[in-house]
Amino acid sequence: CKKELNREPINTATADNVYSTATGYKQSLAKVYGAYALTGSTGSGSSDLGGIDAGTSDFLRLYWNAQELPTDEAICAWNDVGLHDFHDMNWTSGNTFLNGLYTRCVYQITVANSFIAQSTDDKIAARGFTGADADNIRHYRAEARFLRAFQYWVLMDLFANPPFVDENSPIGKVYPAQISRASLFAYVESELKAIDGSLVAAKANEYGRADQGAEWALLARLYLNAEVYLGSGKGRYTDAATYAAKVIGAGYTLNTNYANLFKADNNLNNPEVILSINYDGVTGQNYGGTTFLINSCLNAALNPAAYGVAGGGWGGNRAVSTLPATTFGDYSGNTDKRAMFAGPKIANDDESTFTDGLAVVKFTNMTSAGVAAPSPNGVFTSTDFPLFRLAEMYLTYSEALLRGGTGTAGSALDAYNKVRARAYGNTNGNVTSVALNDILAERSRELYFEAVRRTDLIRFGQFYGDNYKWPWKGGVAAGRAVESFRTIYPIPAPDLSANPNLKQNQGY
Amino acid sequence: GSISGKIVDEHNQPLPGATVTINGTTNGAAADADGNYVIKNIKAGTYTLTAKFVGYEAGVKTVTVNGATTASFGLLPSTKSLNEVVVIGYGTQTRKEVTGAISTVGSKDFQTGTVTSPDQLIQGKVAGVSITTTGGQPGAGSTIRIRQGASLNASNEPLIVIDGVPLAPGRNPDGTSRIAGVGDPISLIDPNDIESFTILKDAASTAIYGSRASNGVIIITTKKGTSGTPTINFSSQNSIATATQKLDLLSGDQIRAYVNANGNAAAKALLGTANTNWQDEIYQNAFASNDNLSISGSTKHMPYRVSVGYLSQDGILKTDHIDRTSGAVRLSPRFFNDDLKIDVNLNGTYQDSRFANQDAIGAAVAFDPTQPVYNSKSKYNGYTEFYDANNLLNPNAPRNPVGLLEDKHNDGDAYRTYGNVTADYRFHFLPQLHANVNLGYDLAKGGGSTYVPANAAQSFSNGNPNNLFNTGGLSSEYHQKTYNSVFEGYLNYNNTFKDIKSNINATAGYGYYDFRTVNRNFASYTAAGVLVDGSTPTYPYGENRYTLESYYGRLIYTYNSKYILAGSIRTDGSSRFSPENRWGVFPSAAFTWRMSDEDFLKGSKTLSDLKMRLSYGVTGQQDGIDYYRYIPSYYLSDNTSKYQFGNGGNSLYNMYTPNAYDTSLKWEQTTAYNAGFDYGFLNQRISGSIDFYYKKTKDLLSQVYLPVGTNFTNLITTNVGNTETKGVEFTINAIPVKTKDFTWSFNYNVAYNNNKITNLSLVPGVQNVTIATGSISGATGTTVQEHAVGYAPYSFYVYKQVYGANGKPLEGVYADLNGDGIINDSDRYLYKSPAPKVTMGFSTEFDYKKWSLSTVLRASLGNYVYNNTASNLGTSRNIITTVGTIGNASTDYYNTLFTNNQYLSDYYVQNASFLRMDNLGLGYNFGHITSNKHLTLRLNANVQNVFVITKFTGIDPEIYNGIDNKFYPRPRTYTLGFNLGF
Fold it and tell me: In the CATH hierarchy, which top-level class contains the domain B85-222?
C-alpha cells in the first residue's frame, strides 16, 4: 500500500514539463514580469506574498507609496495602519507596507533567479532547443537578469543593504547573506553591463519587454545617484550622461501629447516609453498598479466615470499643496499642460480628509480617443505605467552635465528645453539658462506621481533636515526637521528576525 | 405465559426504548413511552432477564414464568456507574478501568429544544470542551476545541469518529466547508440519531488515533436496533427564533439631529424623512420544524433501527433557509451463536439551502436610517440606493440591505451518504481472540448556484453601457464531490489469568484512510447569460487527494483489578509529507490505581470510588495544511492574471507560476501529560473527576516569515515553534435530593486553561518573532492581533488609549510606551486574548412526578473581544461620510465623540466574559394517552439562548476569533415539541 502515499497534484507541472516547450519558457517569463505587475496568479484577490492585504501587495502600489508619500508631492487620507507613517516620516521596521515592498522586490528576484537557473545554455541544449527558440530563450534570460538588477537597484535605493540571493541560491531553509549598498551598486552595474550583448536592441523588442534601452536607462539612473549610494565625491556623472545619451540617441521621441502617456491606450503609438509595467483591466486584474493610481486619486464627487472607472474612486491620494502652488505655480494646465489637477481646495488642512488638497488626475483609464477602456467592475484599469521614459533621460542628461559630467547629446540647456517645449506645446516655456536647482522642480513637474520623487529629493539633499519643509512633512502641519537616517528605510522586522545574517540599518 | 413490567430511571421516570431480553435468546421487548414492556409466548420456566438502556447500568433479574409474570426494573444511570461500558479507540472498557481522561454524554443529558447540528447537543456539558457556534445561521456549525487545541495554523479541530469511522476534517486547509453547498458538514448528521458522545481528552486515550488526535477525539455512537417487538417513535420540535441581540445604532431622528447641527447644506440635502431600523428590516422571526420518525426492533437474529428525519429551518436573516432530509438504517445481525457480529450503519442526507447574503448585516449597520427601504423611482428593483453626481450608483456607498438579501439567490444542494460495515469475529477455538474489520465510506456531492438579476444594485457597475460586461447581474455555479474511504482491521486478545490475578488486553491493527475531493470549475455569466471575460477557468477540473496509513498496537495489563498499566504505539504515514519525513511514531503510556479497592478504603461507607490516573502520550498533526506542499511545482495563472508582451493578436500570456514548497515538512507533535482523579461518594450519588494537564507542541505547523529570497513566498506554514498549554478540569455530578416524587440532580464543570507560544522562530534563540493576524473591517490590511512568544495565540496588539479628565478616550492620544517621544508602531503592546481563562458549565434538572424542569448555563471568564463594529462605525465620519452619503454610526460614538477611526486603540478590546443561559426546558410526560396503552406522549417546551450577562458592548461576547464584526446574531429560540411512542 505504501505507494499510495505518493499522491501527486494534478493541474500542476514539474520544472521539466514547464520548460520542455518554447511556450512554457515564455509563460514562465510572463511570471517574471507579472511579478511586478500583478499581486498574484489567481485573480485580484490572490497574492504571491503573505502578511499583507492581497490588493495592496503589488510592486507599483507599494513602491509608489514609499517614493511619493514621504515627499512634497503626495499625501494619503486613508486610515490603513502604517500608511500615515510615510508622510509623517515616523515609520518603523514593523511597517506593513515597507515589509510588503521589500518582500515584493525580493520575490521578483527569486522568480527571476529560478528562471535564470532554468535557461542556462546547458539547459537550453539539454532540452533540445536550437535556432530561433534558443535565441529567444537567451533573450528571456537576459531580461530576467535585467528585472533582477532593477529590483536590486530598488532595494539598494530604499533599503540600502538587503539580503542577496542569485540563481545559485537554494530554495529551502537557508539564511542569505546581507550585501552592502556599495557592493550591490557594483553588482547591479556589472549585471547590467554583462547583459548588454544578450538583450534585444533598443526599441526592437516586443512591447512590455526590456531591451538595451531599458538597461541603459537604468544605468543612467544608477550613475546619477552614485554619490548617494557610494558617498560624497564618488559621483559618476559622466557615466550617467553617457548612458542617458545612448537612450536619447536610440530613436525614442517625446510623445507630442503629454497626457496620452498616462491613458489606457498608452501601449499603442507611444514612442517615448522605454519600458512599461503592463496592466489590463480584464486580463490583468489587480487592485494595485494603475488601478490604484487612478482610483486612489478620485472620489465620487470628481465623477470617476469621466476617468474610465465608473465603479471606483477611492478618495485617498492627492497633491501636497506645494506641488500645484509652488512647483507649478499656474496649475490650471493652460500654460504648462502637465498640470492635471481637479477639485476645489488646494490646502491640506487635514491629513485624513481627501478633499483637503487637489486631486491629481494625470493617470486615467480613458483612451486618447476619449473612450473608457473595458473594466469589469468599473474599477480595474488598462493603463500601463511608464517605468522608464525618454523625458526622464533628457532631465538626467541635463542634470548629469550640470553636476559636472560630460556628454555627447548636446547641452544641458537643450535637453532641458526639449522637455519644456513638449510641456508647453510651444517654445514659450523655454529658458535661456538652467541651474541645478531648476532640475529638481522640473523633474517634479514632468515626473510627479511617477514614483521617483523620494530618490530625487534625497539626491538634492532636500529630503531630511529642515531646509525644505512641505505641509505635514514629518506629521506636523508646517513641516518639521526630519532625521537624516530616514533617507534609508529600515530592514523590515519580519526578515530581520527570520534571517540572523541581517543587521538593521542605522537609526532604526 | 408472558413477562411484563416497567422500566424506570433513578427519578422513577419511564425509560422508553429500554430493552429487556431473556438471556441466551434473542427474545425480548422494548419499553414503550411509558416504560412498559411485554414479552409474550414464553414457555413456563425460570429465566434470567437483562434490562438495558443507553447510559444506564444494565439491570438483571431472575423470574419464574407461570402465566403472566411481572418483572420491573429501576435502572441507575451508568455515567455515574463504575461498570458502565465506555467506548475507547478500537474497543471498550468499563468506566472503572478507564486509564485516560474520558468524558461521556448520553442522550439523556443532551441539550434539548431545536438542536439541528450534533455538536450543539453537548454544549456546556463537558469540562474543557468549548463549542462556539459560528453564529445564528442555520447549519453553520461550530468551532469545537478540546483543551483549546494544540496548533496555530494546522487544524485545531478534534477528530470526530462516528460508529468507528474517523471523518475527514469539516474544513479544507483554506477554511472552506469540506462539502460544497453546506455551511458545515457536521450539520448533515441528524442529532436525533445520536445515542452518546465520548470525548477523549488526554494523550493516553487519543494516541491510539495517533496522527489525527492532537486536538482530542469525539466518538459519536448512534442509536442501534433494539431487541423485541418494534417500537415506533415520532418526535417533532417546532420553534420560532427571534433576533434579540441587535447592535445599538443611531435612529433616523438622531441622525437628522446630528446632521442638522453639524452638516453643511449638501449633507443636509441628503437627509431623508424616514426612521428605518435596518436591522429590523433584515431580520425576521424564523420558523423551524425538526421531525424524526424511527422504528426499532428485532427480527429473528437481527436488531434493526430505521429512522427518517426532516428539518425545515428559516434563518433569522431573511432569505436564509435550509431543508434537510435524512435517513438512517442500522442493522446488527448476529451469527454463529454470536461469534460473528455484524453492524451495518447507513446514512443518507439531502440538504437544500438558500444562503442569505450576509453582506446585508454590515450594510444594515452602515446604511442611512433616514431613508426608506423602497423608493418607487429607483431603477434598482425599487430599493433605495445612493447615487453620485451623475445620478449613477455611488460606488462607495453601502447597498440597500434588503436589496442585498432579496436580490441574491445563492442556493446550495448537498447529498451525503456515509456509513460502515463492521464485522467482529470471536474465534471459536480461542474465544479470547477477536478479529474486527471495519469498512467505511463518506461520499458527498455538493453544488450550487448564485444568481443576481441584472438590475440589482449589488452587482451593477456603472461601466460603459455598451459593454455587456458591465450590464450587471451574475450567474455562476459550482460542483464538488468528495470520496472518502476507510479500512481498518484489528485483532484483540483479552484474557484473565486468575492464578496470577492478571488481565491482559492486547490489540494490534492497521488502518487505511483515503480522502479525495473533485471540483468542477465554471465560468461566470452576467444575468443576461453573457460570459464574464476572464472567468473561464484555466483548470476546469481539479482534484485534491491525500492518504493516511497506520499501524497500531495497545496493551493493557491489569493486576488484581487495582493496578492498570496501559501502553500504545501507533505509526502513521501521510501523503502530505515527503517519503523521508512521511512516518511519525506516536506512543502513549498510562497508569491507573483504583485506590478505593485497596483494603484501607474498601470498607468506607461514604467513599464509593477513588481512582488515580497518570498518563503520557504523543500525538501528531497534519490536517489543515496543503496537500502537496513538499513537491516543487508550477501552475498556470488564471485568465484574469495574464501578462502582456507585445501588441499583437496573441499578446496575453498565462503565467507559469512556481509554487512555494517545503521539502522538510513533517509531523507536528504534541506531548501531553495528564494526572487525574475520579471520585465517588455515597454510592456514586456524588461523583466526578479532577484532571491536571500539561501539553507541549513541537515542530508546530505555523505560518512564519521565511528569510526573503529563499522560497516563492515569504510566509509559509512549516514546522516551527512551540506552544504549551496547562490546565485544570473539575467535574461534579450530584443528586442532592431524591424522594419518591421529587428529584434534583446537577452537573457542574469548570476548566482553567492557559495557552502560550514559547517559540516561533526557525532561528534558535530568536524570541522577538511576531506574526500579525486578525484582519479587521474598515482599514484595508490592518490587523489587530499577533502571535508572539510568551503570549497566548491571537493576543491583541494595540495602542494604550489615554483618557481625558471626563473619562472619555482622547482621539488619537496614546501612551508613549517606549518613551521615545514619538507615537508609532513601536508603542503598540500585546493586551489580552480571545481565549477564556476559565470556562464553566452547569446543568441541572428538577423532576416532580410527571414534570421536569431543566436548564443549562455556561460561563466564560477572561476572554476579550475586539469590538470592530464600534471601532469601524463609532465615529462622526460614519454619519456624514467622505463619499458623499449619510451613514449610520454605532451609539458608541456618544462615548468617544471620535471624528476619525482609531482602529488600534485598546479602548475597543473589551472584556467579553459572560454568563449565558443556553437552555431552559419544561417537560410533561402524559404516559399512556389511550386506553389500550399503545400510545404514549411527552410534551416539552424550551427556550434556548435565554439570556447573556456580559459587560461586552458588541452584539455577542461569544466570538471565537475575538473580533466582533458583522456577526450573524444568535437568535433566542422558543420550541414546543412532542414525542409520540407506539
Answer: mainly beta
